Amino acid sequence: MVRKGNRTIIIPSQSYLDYKKVVMPQLRAIKKKQKIKTITDACNIKMVFYRGDKRRCDLSNLQEALLDLLVDAEIIEDDNYNIVSFMDGSTVYYDKENPRTEVEITIL
Fold it and tell me: Model confidence at 90, in pLDDT bands (50, 70, 90)?
């Protein structure tokens, strides 16, 4: 966070910017290839994160970062509760050989 006058501005971390640089092209390619229309209806988004290290992490931070990217890639219209009604099944695993994120979106 940075104070600018009487306003507070939240600046994304370098880790988030690095993640975005890798993930956004993949999301855009998937959207184009599968001809995905922007989701505007209530849905469940299951996110399974396979991390390459065993460091402790906060699942809600991982989810929020990915939701922001899904909105930026216009896969979902917004990440508010009217559209992202559930995130059931989301979890974190360790996979040193193949770190990745798997996303399953189910329209309700």
Answer: very high
33-63 pLDDT, tens digit each: 999 999 999 999 999 999 999 999 999 999 9
| pLDDT per residue as tens digits for the range 79-89 | 999 999 999 99
**Third-level CATH fold of 2-107:** 60s Ribosomal Protein L30; Chain: A; (3.30.1330)
Task: State the amino acid at position 49 in one-letter form.
Answer: F
* Rounded-to-integer distance, Cα 52 and Cα 93, Å: 9
Residue pair 63/87 in contact by the 8 Å Cβ criterion: yes
Positive or negative torsion for Cα 76, 103, 15, 1: positive
- Closest to 89 (Cα-Cα) out of 77, 100, 102, 78: 102
Could you give the CA distance from residue 5 to residue 3 in angstroms, rounded to a whole number?
6
- Domain-wise residue ranges, the chain: 2-107
In this structure, what are the phi and psi dihedrals at residue 105, rounded to the nearest 5 degrees?
Answer: -110, 125
